[in-house]
């Protein structure tokens, strides 16, 4: 297999709390739109956490036949929809042999709403009432499998399941698949639909979720008032394609995926390493692959969940990777302030933010950042987007299990 082929993005699709396509999602980010509101997907009366960043007005029948909708979990519906948008925009279908066309798609939890519904049937009505489709609707590889079936992708079709790093790990592994010659194009990204009672209860009871009832005081990355993340849902998909192949067919090229770091803290199931060793190493690996130099103007889309520990330790990771002086002059923002935390879809929507920040020279803000924590002492772009001609964008994702991923992007 050939080594180190260049890999570019030629299509993007999005179903997110900010809009059901790429344009609405990016416009929302640029304009500081808050996608967080009261949870409507179930009754939250007995729950401490009552806010979420839900996808609004999504009709799966725009992408799937009605019988497919009835046999598909919400997380897979989002994934299939975003992937279809990306494929259609890229025009890649038919230009790549099916055996050279792959899928790597992330999810942290998979079909948890299906699990809840069918487990309730089991407990209340007995085993004969459990759907024969329970298993294929629930399992975390089904988004990748359905995308592959829909677009005749006969190369690798596998999920990335690394908690909140899933979307970024999917993109990074897709990069390697194309870079090293195993595929010519890959549909990649991440999807999640976990705004369900069991997930909310679990996250609340481990004190990970914000319990604020004010959407403008709930997801507060880098702010002194932060008290946990707000759960989000949705999917973003990308077409990663070998550069010469994309150029030869006249494809629109959004940017180059030029670096990937993937590490594990090997420390604790939920807490990040106190010295940020894994997160910093992931950033350093991505920067090295991307050919980082001191002259680069850098934007870091931070994992920035708004939990007390994450934001301080990620600040330390950015300083370790870039050096304190460079870290302080770089641009850092957390778009989770607007989208909530999309878990397995987070790395994908944050990659979208990086690509458009490079293309348009606009850094999306960290909204509702009114009392910045002294321990999070970076340029966190509070409340309003800023214009900046950046040359390198880094997207950080840090997941339970100690998983760290960083993706690097440049303009072509």
Output the CATH class name of the largest domain: Alpha Beta
Largest sheet: 10 strands, mixed
**Structure classification:** alpha/beta
What is the mean pLDDT? 97
| Assembly status | single chain
Unreliable spans are none
Question: CATH superfamily name of the largest domain?
Answer: Thiolase/Chalcone synthase
Question: Domains counted in the coordinates: how many?
Answer: 2
The spatial strand order of the largest sheet comes to 5-4-6-7-1-8-14-13-9-10
- By DSSP (H or I, 4+ residues per run), the number of helices equals 14
Can you count the beta strands? 14
- Our Rg estimate from Cα atoms comes to 20 Å
The secondary-structure element order is: EHEEHHEHHHEHEHEHEHEHHEHHEEEE
Report the CATH architecture of the largest domain.
3-Layer(aba) Sandwich
3D architecture notes:
The protein is an alpha/beta fold. It folds into 2 domains: 7-248, Peroxisomal Thiolase, Chain A, domain 1; 259-410, Thiolase/Chalcone synthase (Peroxisomal Thiolase, Chain A, domain 1). It has helices at 22-30, 66-69, 74-90, 112-125, 134-138, 142-151, 166-179, 197-205, 243-248, 277-289, 308-322, 324-329, 336-339, 346-360, and strands at residues 7-15, 37-38, 51-52, 101-106, 157-160, 185-192, 234-242, 255-264, 298-301, 331-333, 362-363, 386-387, 392-399, 403-410. Strands 5-4-6-7-1-8-14-13-9-10 form a 10-stranded mixed beta sheet, sandwiched between helices. Helix 3 (74-90) packs parallel to helix 6, helix 7 packs across helix 14 and helix 10 crosses helix 11. It is globular. The mean pLDDT is 97.
Notable traits:
412 residues, Peroxisomal Thiolase, Chain A, domain 1, ten-stranded mixed β-sheet, globular, two-stranded antiparallel ribbon, alpha/beta, single chain, 2 domains
